[in-house]
Amino acid sequence: MIRLQKRCFDAVLVFWKLNKKPNDTSKALITTTSTMVSIYYVQSATFLNSPFPSPASGSLRRGASSPQSLRVTASRSSSYDVVVVGGGIIGLTIARQFLTGSDLSVAVVDKAVPCSGATGAGQGYIWMTHKKPGSDIWDLAMRSHHLWHELADSLTDQGLDPQDMLGWKKTGSLLVGKTSQECVALKQKVNELSEGGLRAEYLSSADLFLKEPAILVDDETGAAFLPDDSQLDAHRAVAYIEKGNREFATEGRYAEFYHEPVTGLLRSDGGSKEVTGVQTLKHNLYGKKATIVAAGCWSGSLMHDLLKDSNISVDVPVKPRKGHLLVVENFDSFNLNHGIMEAGYADHQSASAPGVEERMLSISMTATMDTTGNLVLGSSREFVGFDTEADETIIRCIWERAAEFFPTLRDISLEDFIRNRKVRVGLRPYIPDGKPMIGSVPGLQNLYLAAGHEGGGLSMALGTAEMVSDIVLGKPSKVDVSANTYFKPLLFLLYLFVNQTNGLPVETIFKFQGPLPPILPHEVHFGKGTIDLGGLEVKQVSISNTTAKRVWRTYEGGRDSMGFSIFEPINLPANFFKIGFYAQPNNQKLFGWILVARDVSGRSLRPPVDYIEVWNTASLDIKQDGHAYFWQPVCLNGYKPVGVIVTTSSQKPPMKKKSISCVRSELTEQSEADTLVWGFKGVSVVNLRPVQRGTQATGVYTGTFSFQQLNSSPLPYLFCLKNTKLNMSSNMPSKAQTRALFKTYSPLIYFHPKEIFLPSSVHWFFANGALLYKKGNESNPIPIQPNGTNLPQGGSNDDLFWLDFPLDKTAKEKVQRGDLRNTKVYLNIKPMFGGTFTDIAVWIFCPFNGNAHLKFLFIKSLSLGQIGEHVGDWEHVTLRISNFNGKLWRVYFSQHSGGTLVDACDLEYVEGGNKPVIYSSLHGHAMFSKPGLVLQGKRKYGIRNDMARSDKWLDCGKGYEVIGGPWGVVEPAWTSYFRKWGPRMGYKIDKSIKSFAKKILPMFVRKRLRNIIRKIPYEIIGEDGPTGPKAKLTWTGDDKYS
Ligand SMILES: Cc1cc2nc3c(=O)[nH]c(=O)nc-3n(C[C@H](O)[C@H](O)[C@H](O)COP(=O)(O)OP(=O)(O)OC[C@H]3O[C@@H](n4cnc5c(N)ncnc54)[C@H](O)[C@@H]3O)c2cc1C
Asked: 1031 by DSSP, 3-state: which?
C-alpha cells in the first residue's frame, strides 16, 4: 500500500510542478511526511486577508478576475457549493461531474490520497460480460459503460491517446466456462446480453483457442465474448480525472484537502436536519448545496460516527471486502488479447456475507494485460474487517487458480517474479444486496451518499457521478429509476434505518464483545449452520441489516414504551424459503434469529393457497411507519402455517412460495405463547414456542411470532416445527466442543458484599462433616462419604432421609459459611427444542441460605428471623446455545420458585469477553442479570433480593464438573440422591412472625405483614428441605419462567 500511495503522491507532485509558473508570486503549501502530501488550492490575492469566504459571505465566484495561485492558507473555514468526502474513483468522478456539468464549486476531502482506497487496487475492467440484463444495477452499469466509451472517444477526438490518458484498451472480454453446465449457462447469458442491447457471441472451445491461445481448452470449454468491452488503468484514470478537476482551481472552483479525515458533520444551528458541510481536524468545509459521502467501505462507519452524538442514526450496511491482486511486471511468457474472467465470477462477487465473524475467503480468476505489458491476475474476496495486510498464501492461491486456465503458468514458479511483481490490496465497499446506495439521506437535508459499489466501482463511476449530480441539481435522471428497482428501495432501505425517534436501541446490531467459540473441526453436525429435521432442512438466520429488512415498526407501547419492529428475512441462501417473519422490541439491540427452510423431500413445503388478513394497525392510534397488515397463510390440506407475513399494503400478498411457505403437517407441532414482544391496549405480540419442551420433546422453536387480541375470536392456529429424526442429541456439541462453549460463555457470579453464606463444592460439604439423617433414627446420623457413595440412591423425596450440618458448633459454622476457594459448579448438558439447541444448566450449591429480609412500610429491610433459612441450597442458571452456530441465545436465571429468561443482547458481560455476569442475591442466592434491588411481593413491599458487585465472585469456567450429558457421563453418586439436602425447618411461620414482629411492630400492621409473608414463594420460606438438581423437573424439562 505504501507503494501505491507513493505513486499517487508522485502524480500529485508532478502535476503541481507542471502548474507552478516561475513568476508565480503566490505560494503553495506542500507538507510532506513519508506518506503524506497536502496541497490547498485557494483563491487569488483578493482573498489573501480573508482567504475563503465564510458561509455567511457567499460562495466562491466563478472565473474570479485575479490570477490563480496556489496559496498557503491558515483559514479554518472554507465554503464551496459541494463538498465530497472521499477521493476514490467515486468521489473524484462526482467532483468532475459538477465541475464539467455545472458552475458549482467543489472541494474533495480525503483522509489519505485517492488511490489509497479500493480504487488503487482495482484491476480496471469496465466490462458488461458478468452483469445481468434487467438486474437492479443493469441500467447504471450500461449508462456508465456508455459514458466511459464516450470519454475515450472524446479524448481521441481531441488528438489525445486514451491509452496514455486512461490506460484504455478496447480488448473485449471473455467469460470462460470449463464445464458443460457452465457453457449452457454462458450460451443463455449471450442471448440475454444480446437482448439487452450488447454485441455478444458464444465461443466454442475451438473459437476460444483461436482468440486466446494461452487458455487451456478442452471439449467442455466455452466462453461468452463481448467484443466492445474495455479496460483501463485505475491509477492513470485517477490521475487524469484529478488533473482535469484541478484545472478548475484556476477559476477558484476546486480544492483538495488530502490527509484530512472528516471527523464531524456541520449542521445549521448546531443540530438541525440541514447539513452544511464537514469538519476535519484543520478545517470546517462548508457545502452550501450538498455534502456527498463517497467514502467507499468506510461510508457505513463514517456515517455512524458522524451522527453518533445526534438523535439521528443512519445505518449504511457497507462493509469492507478485502481483495488481493497480483501484478507481474513485464510479463512475456504469453500474451493476452482480451480481458478474461472465469464463469463463476458473478456468483463469487454476489455471494452474501455470512455472520459478521466469518471470513468466507473465495478466489476467482480474472486476468488482464495492461498497457505496459504487466500481467494482472485477480482476485480474492474475504471479510476480515479493515485489515489491508497482503497475505502471501492468498497470492499463491491466485497464481494457482490462474494456472488452471493458463497452463504455461504451471511451469513458472511464482518465486521467479519476486523482484518484478506487485501485490495490490484493497477493500471493496461491499453491500449485502449488491446495489450501491446512491441518493439523498432522508431526514438530513443536503446530505447525499454514493457508496457500496463492491467490485464494480471503476465501471460504474461515471454513471454514479452523473446520477448524483442530477439528483443534487434536480435534473431528470438519465438512468431509468422508475423501471428499475435499485434506486428507490435503496432510499427506502436507508429511510428505514434513519431513526427519527431518538436513536432506538434496535437501530444498533448486537455483537458479542469477544470471539465466538470455535466450531471444532471434528464436529459432525454441531455448528454446521443447518439441521435436517427429516425431509426439511432448516437454517438459523441471525437477524442483522444484511439478513433482514424491517417492514414496519411502531414507536409506542411495549417495553420501555419504545414499541417494536417487524423484520422480513432477506438474502436467503439458495433454495431456502421463509416460514415466518421476526418481531422484536425496540428497546433491545437488533438481535435474535429466525429459521428458514429447504425442502429436502420435495413435499415438505408448499406455497399458501390464500391469505387471511388477521389484523391490521389502521385503526390503532399509535405512532407507526404506515399501517401494518398481518396475513396468515391458508395452507393446502396436509400443510400447516408456521408464521405470519406482514405488509404495509392492504393488498393480499402473492401466493408464492417465495412470500412464505406452509409446512407439511407431520413436520409441525403445537405451539404456544412464549415471551412477550409487545403489548398495547389489549393486543399482545408474542414469540411462539413448542408446547412440549424437554430433552425428549421434538418441537422446534422457529423464531416466528403471533399475536393475541383481548375480547376477540381466537385467531387461526400457528404451528412450530418438529424434529422427526429420532435422536435428539445428534446435533449437540461433543464433549470437547462443550468445553469450548463453556470456556467462552461460562458465567462470572458476583456475591453481595454482605454475603456470609457462600457456595462450596458438594465434595467439600460432605468432607467437612455433613451428616445423613434417617427418619426414625434421628439420633444416629452418619457422616457422608466425600464422593457421596453412601447416600441412598433413587427413590423419591419421601421425607425418609435428609442431610444436615455437623453437630459440632465450630464445624457447623464453618460449613454454613461455605468456601469460595473450594467451589465448583455442576453442568447438566441437555438437548432442547428438538435438539436444535443445547442447554447448559450450571448448578451452584450453597450449604446454607440466610434468612429473608422484607421491605415493609417505612422499614427498608426487616429481618424475618428464621424465615428463609435452610440447609443445602441449589440454584442454577442455564445457557441456551444454538446448535446451528454455537451462539448463546438466552440465559435462564433461577429465582426461588421460578425464574427469568434474558436474551443474550440484554446481558452484562465480563469486559472484552462473552462471559455473562450474574448476581447472586444476598442470603437467598437467587440469580439475577443486574445489580440492585428486586422486590418479590406486592407493589412497594416484598421480600428483598439485593444484588451487588463485591470481591466475592466465582468464575464458573475455572472449576466445573459435568454431571449430566448426552455422551454417557459418569454421574457422581450424589446426583441420584433424590431426598432432601437439608432438614425440614422446625419453625412455624405464624409463630415465628409473632415472636419477632411483636417486638418491633404495632399490632395493627402485624396482620398485614402476615398476609404479605403468606404470599412469599414456598422456596423462600424454606420450611421444607430442598432437593438436588436431578430431582427437579428441569433436569429433563424446560426451565420455568414467567
Ligand atoms: C482487488 C480489486 C480489484 C478490483 N477490480 C475492479 C475492476 O476491475 N473494475 C471495477 O469496476 N471495480 C474493481 N474493483 C472495485 C473498485 O475498486 C471499487 O468499487 C471502487 O474503487 C470503489 O471506489 P470508492 O471511491 O467508493 O472507494 P475508495 O476507492 O475506497 O475510496 C474511498 C475514499 O474515502 C476516503 N475516506 C474514508 N474515510 C474517510 C474520512 N473519514 N474522511 C475523508 N475521507 C475518507 C478513503 O481514504 C478513500 O480514499 C476492484 C476492487 C479490488 C479490491
From this structure: helix
User: CA-to-CA distance for 129 and 347, rounded, in angstroms?
Assistant: 13
940-991 per-position pLDDT tens digit = 677 888 999 999 999 999 999 999 999 889 999 999 999 999 998 755 665 6
User: What's the angle, vertex CA 105, arms to CA 103 and CA 110, rounded to 5?
Assistant: 140
* DSSP letter, residue 651: S
Task: Tell me if 312 sits within 8 A of 499, measured CB to CB.
Answer: yes
Tens of pLDDT along 635-688? 999 999 999 999 999 999 988 767 889 999 999 999 999 999 999 988 899 999
Ligand 1 mutation target, pool 97, 123, 235, 307, most atoms within 8 A of CB: 123
* 3-class SS letters over 793-824: CECCCCCCEEEECCCCHHHHHHHHHCCHHHCC
Atom of ligand 1 lying closest to residue 455 CA: 15
Alpha carbons 276 and 272: distance in angstroms, whole number: 10
Contact call for residues 103 and 401 (beta carbons, < 8 A):
no
3-state secondary structure of 930: coil
DSSP-derived 3-state class of residue 569: strand
Ligand 1 pocket: which of 169, 258, 262, 298 to mutate (most atoms <8 Å of CB)? 298
User: How many CA atoms lie less than 13 Å away from 309 in the CB half-sphere?
Assistant: 8
Q: Which one-letter amino acid corresponds to residue 994?
A: K
91 C-alpha to ligand 1 centroid (Å)? 9
> What residues have CB less than 8 Å from 6, skipping those under 6 apart?
35
* Residues with a CB atom less than 6 Å from ligand 1: 85-91, 109-112, 114, 116-119, 121-125, 261-262, 294-298, 302, 323, 325, 378-379, 426, 428-429, 451, 453-459
* Residue 386 backbone class (left: φ over 0; alpha: ψ -120 to 50; beta: rest): alpha
Of 4, 38, 119, 462, the residue with max ligand 1 atoms within 8 A of its CB, to mutate for a pocket test, comes to 119
Q: Which residues of 994-1008 are buried (b: 16+ CB within 10 A; e: fewer)?
A: eebbeeebeeeeeee
CA of 402 to the centre of ligand 1 (A): 24
What pLDDT score does 1018 carry?
59
| Ligand 1 centroid to residue 336 C-alpha, Å | 26
